[in-house]
Amino acid sequence: MARIVMKFGGTSVADLDRIRAVARRVAAEVEAGNEAAVVVSAMAGVTNELIGWCQQLSPLHDAREYDAVVATGEQVTAGLLAIALQAAGVDARSWQGWQVPITTDAAHGAARIRGIAGAELVRRMAAGQVPVVPGFQGLGSDGRITTLGRGGSDTSAVALASALRVDRCDIYTDVDGIYTTDPRIVAKARKLARITYEEMLELASVGAKVLQTRSVELAMKERVRLQVRSSFTDAPGTLVVDEDEIVEQPLVAGIAYSRDEAKITVRRVPDRPGIAAALFGPLAAASVNVDMIVQNVAADGTTDLTFTLGKADLPRARQLLAEGREAIGYAEVTADSDVAKISVVGVGMRSHAGVASTMFRTLAEKAINIQVISTSEIKVSVLIGAEYTELAVRALHSAYGLDAA
Amino acid sequence: MARIVMKFGGTSVADLDRIRAVARRVAAEVEAGNEAAVVVSAMAGVTNELIGWCQQLSPLHDAREYDAVVATGEQVTAGLLAIALQAAGVDARSWQGWQVPITTDAAHGAARIRGIAGAELVRRMAAGQVPVVPGFQGLGSDGRITTLGRGGSDTSAVALASALRVDRCDIYTDVDGIYTTDPRIVAKARKLARITYEEMLELASVGAKVLQTRSVELAMKERVRLQVRSSFTDAPGTLVVDEDEIVEQPLVAGIAYSRDEAKITVRRVPDRPGIAAALFGPLAAASVNVDMIVQNVAADGTTDLTFTLGKADLPRARQLLAEGREAIGYAEVTADSDVAKISVVGVGMRSHAGVASTMFRTLAEKAINIQVISTSEIKVSVLIGAEYTELAVRALHSAYGLDAA
After folding, report:
1. What is the interface pTM, i.e. ipTM, of the complex?
2. CATH number of the domain at A3-174, out of 1.20.1540.10, 3.30.300.30, 3.40.1160.10, 1.10.260.40?
3. Residue A93, Cβ neighbours under 10 Å: how many?
4. Residues 6 or more apart from A236 whose CB is under 8 A from it?
5. pLDDT of residue B301
6. Contact A73, A97 (CB under 8 A)
7. CATH architecture type of domain B255-399
8. Does the model's pTM come out above 0.90?
9. Does A59 contact chain B (CB < 8 Å)?
10. Contact status of B51 with chain A (Cβ, < 8 Å)
11. What average pLDDT score do residues B364-389 get?
């Protein structure tokens, strides 16, 4: 017997038939003797419609009213699933965020969970009742409904799993697990049985958006064992767990890529203290998220600085740099949005040398030029021309021995 | 300066343009120096869609979950209207039933309001803020969301008006007031400037469904002055008020009709004590609402009993009578659903004789046969063949001097 949280995303509850299918899955867990609590998203499309209405009425709408409107999507699904569970013979009860309560701060539209009062839910689960909790929402410190921001239902599920001290939090989604890379690019991509929180975070941050980053961070902090699995098959998914739980840790867990990158080079910047602050300070103040940064060794008292950022932020960043030209004193700014970031991720590389050099050699063999390199403890990322994305991902997938037999 | 509650029904908030129009109406009241609170229904069609989903998942769905699902319709409108009001330059804030709170009993799906904590809303209205309250919903004594049953938003508005001690409760709807009869039948029907609560109740109960009966009863009990007016024109509507407020009370306020009636005659029932109880007891137990009842004087130790009921209840009533045949001991049951009820309503008839005889004479002149007669203090109703409905209504409208000049 286990105690679990089951979380179902928008496509898993997109219509009444799928809600019935979700009810059957939950019923199967209960019949197997497990205690289950369920977290649900809004039916696919509903949240976007509600957001659209708010924006059409006022582009600068009040976030408190936005939250009251948008939180209804999950409320509807929770009530409908409770009805479907009862129809399937399972005792069930929906709990709104304000009823549990799931308390948050008052940062409407992007609230953070402060606490979940789980005792009553635990008591009911022990008595055989399934609590159905709408994800994405909570009760703000101002007494009003809050939402956690897009994708917040994953975070709701992990926070609830932590509060209920469950054995596992199953995230049901439209993919059946985490792969060594994108199966659409590499036919030989393999589903991973297990992956560490750290690897999942690095993969998520470079474009493998199966789980919301915040939810993985929270799961790591609270030591909640996650399982990513499909709503549409019975195949086991991928467990996201602590490093200790993975006996044979492979060197590299997976290859991720992101085409959502742009590169800016600032040429002939004066090589003096404080120049990086002058350059990146205004970008940070404007919430432009800078990723990789490379500074060459100075020559002639000047240096070249290259950094990457999200494509959507490129116009804003160029404008800020133009405005700061006098203060920074650079010669020229060039930009390139026709780039991709390729990352090799694995906690195994902590204790193994040669991961980066394998990457560079593999790309060189394919005549792919590396524009920028950045490394973390468990990741090596390179920026390359966007047209080489598939070629690079396939070559690296083979080079690290990830191809399925 | 006045303090008012403004209530907008589903067609008045059917889409974003209409919500904007509602915001302009509310803004005009605020600009005129009035304090306003707003009660809203769900956008037209939304409630039926939500109810349909619950029924499709389970015909015998849990009323607590039904309430959690269905209450979202009003929640969305309240948030959207608050945004639209802010965009129109009006300080506004939505308040869910559980936030005010509007406390109710725990009769989910048909809850009754127990109390409304209005002090905070009054304080905010005095400071120029417009509270937007979703109708139809409350916080049950079990701590869960309740709904008041169909049309409950009118009742929400009147209860809020009472709690806020307003000067007037304006019910905005898709008609522009209460008419002397249905203008689709009688071209010369006139809009009434004023009508009493009692007359409104009698008109509502016989098919002029502009206001929910419960809301009028509550308004009468709490002495809340109602105004029924159109969301789509600026014409003044009809005031529903205490009898004292109507200086020149006309004899008859209006002519109502209902085609939603059926008639059952039970022939040769033994004329002995307790037989009416044996006949109507099982009907009441099955929630079959019986309206007019006529019992003829007995002959040969038996009597004939005729009663009317809603058309939808006819099959159930016939079944119950068939099951009770032995206990009741009647000879035969006949039914006729091809009937209409015509009612003449007016508080003036309390002090004037001759209203009923005018009705009978008028119908006789048109050769319309009266099947059943029933009277109350301020109403005379007759059952006639359905095909005579329009003829009867037009003739009576003229006979009581109600035709517009």
Report:
1. 0.82
2. 3.40.1160.10
3. 21
4. A177, A193, A227, A229
5. 84
6. no
7. 2-Layer Sandwich (3.30)
8. no
9. no
10. no
11. 93
